[in-house]
Amino acid sequence: MTFDRRIFNFAAGPATLPEEVLQQAADELLNWQGLGTSVMEISHRSKEFMVVYEEVLQDLRTLMSIPDTYEILLLQGGGIGQNAAIPMNLMPLAKNGPKADFIVTGVWSEKSFKEAEKYGIAHLAASSASEKFNTIPARSTWKLSSDAAYVHYCANETIGGVEFPDVPDVGGVPLVADISSNILSKEMDVTKCGVWFGGAQKNIGPSGVTIVIVRRDLMGHSMKITPSVMDWAKESANQSMFNTPPTFSIYMAGLGFKWLLRQGGIKVIEKRNQEKANLLYDCIDQSGLYENRVAKEYRSRMNVTFFLKDENLNAEFLAQSSAAGLAALRGHKAAGGMRASIYNAMPLEGVKALVEFMRDFERRA
After folding, report:
1. Among 24, 125, 217, 328, which residue has the fewest nearby CB atoms (within 10 Å)?
2. Active site residue: 32, 108, 232, 259, which one?
C-alpha cells in the first residue's frame, strides 16, 4: 500500500514528527550551515556541533524551567538502559544497603522494578497488577520504605494508557520519574523529582538520544560496578560525551525543541493535547462499539487505548483504518485491542480524522 501524501501515524514510538521539522532536516541534510557536509558527518567536538549541543540544553531548560541545580545529560541506551543506570547511581544512597521503592502501574514500571532487583533490594511499594494495570493505586495504600534510596514511578504507561495526573508526594526521598512518553506534553515541576528520564522517540525526535535530568547532589554516588558510560558523574564531567554521542538524534531533538518553542511552549501544547484527548475519549465513551478500560481519572493524554466490544471486527478495523491513512492503531501485544498515540506532533486534524473513521466504521459494523 502506497500513499501520495503523509498519513496520520498513531505509532507509540518511534512516533510521528512535525512535518516542518522533517522538512528542515531534509533541506539541511547534504549541506548543513553551508559547510558542504551533513550534520551527521562532522565531529561531535567541533565548534559547529557544540553550538547545537548547547542550544539543545538551553532550549530544554527553557521549555521545562529546569533550574541550575539540575544537570541535563544526553545519553544512549534508552529508558531500558536507565533502568540499570538509575539503581547503580542511586541505590548506594540507601541507609542500610542498596534499596529502592517501586510503584508498578504497567509494563514499563514493572520492567524497571525487575531490572533494579539485580543491583539491590527492589521493594514493591504499590502495584495495580491485580486491576490489570487499568488504574493507579491510591496513595494511601503505598507501603513506602523508611530506608529506600529513592522511589521510582512511570509517569505515563505507554502500553496500558495510564497516566499520573500529578507528581506524587513521597516525602523527602528522591523521586525518579520515567517520562519517556509524556515528556514536554504538559507542565511539570522539575523540582518535585530528583531524576527525570526518557527516550526522545515519542515527543521529541527520532530514537537514539536519552534525556536524563538529575539533581546535581544525586551524582557521584555510583556503585563500583557501574560502567563508565552509565556513570552520571563521569558523563556530566565529559558533557555527555564520554563516548561519541548520537549526534544526529541530538540535532533532531534540537529542531523539535525549537518547533515547540514556536508553538508557544508547554502551556500551549498542553492545551492542544488535552483537546485532542478529550475529542477521542468522548468518541469512545459515546460509542456502543468501543470502550476504554482505564479509570477515567488516570487516562493517558498521550496513549489512548480502546477495545472493540466485538473483537471479531478487529482485523477489519485495522485493515480499513490503514487503508484510510490512519496507521499503527494495533494495541501492544501485551495489552491487545487498539491504541492511538497522540503525542505533541499529532495534529488535531489527525485525531478528527480518526474519530470520523471510528464513527463511520461503527455505523457500518
Report:
1. 217
2. 108
- From the candidates 32, 99, 101, 178, give the one annotated as an active-site residue: 178
108 as an active site residue: the answer is yes
Q: Give the max Cα distance, the chain.
A: 63
Catalytic residue check, 143 = no
Active site (annotated) includes residue 32: no
C-alpha cell at 14: 518511534
pLDDT digits (tens, 9 = 90+) for 40-53: 999 999 999 999 99
Instruction: Give pLDDT, residue 35.
Output: 97
Amino acid at 140: S
Residues 165-187 as b or e (16 or more Cβ within 10 Å = b)? eebbebeebbbbbbbbbbbbbbe
CA-based Rg of the chain, rounded to a whole angstrom? 21
Cell of 156: 505515563
Q: What is the mean pLDDT of residues 85-103?
A: 98
Does this model's pTM top 0.90? My answer is yes
Mean pLDDT of 174-202: 98
Q: Which of 32, 99, 196, 202 is catalytic?
A: 202
Average pLDDT, the chain: 97
Q: Which residue, among 193, 210, 204, 175, has the nearest Cα to 82 in the 3D structure?
A: 210
Q: Predicted confidence band at 98 (pLDDT cuts at 50, 70, 90)?
A: very high
